[in-house]
Amino acid sequence: MKRAAGTTIYLWELAWILPSIALPVGMLVALVVTAFGAGVHVPSDAGRIDVRRVAETFPTQVLEIAPGQYEVRMKAQIWSFTPNEIRVARGSTIHFWATSPDVVHGLFIPRTNVNVMVLPGQIAHVQARFDTPGTYPIICHEYCGIAHHTMAGKVIVE
Ligand code: CUA
What we know:
The chain is an alpha+beta fold. The protein has helices at about 5-35, 55; strands at about 60-65, 70-75, 80, 85-90, 90-100, 105-110, 115-120, 125-130, 135-140, 150-155.
């Protein structure tokens, strides 16, 4: 039996159309399962904050909460960190709490485990112990605009 040419074309179209529907549906299912089933959430879920009121509700500071224990409340904004220089004695642990009043920034300190996204409306928490004296750069590693590459600070371990 001879098949009409039109039928073959239709089958090829169907072979492409079906995956183009199945793929986004599959991705949506994966998204819903990971978000609600697997509990996938923002990088650091330490709390939420009203982005418009960060200046009043999130005072930046470096506080020695116990011997060798520092609490740093940090604001990452275009294009700087406040505070941008932190001095601690060697062997200290710094507990960073950071937020952003504008766009997504990064908080990254090479050679430590500090590596977190700083999202507007969200407070990020990460801590690290500094045993080796030296200067550790604080780097924004999320592209945040034209002067992103200038956004940096430092931790000085004495
Ligand atoms: Cu802030 Cu890049």
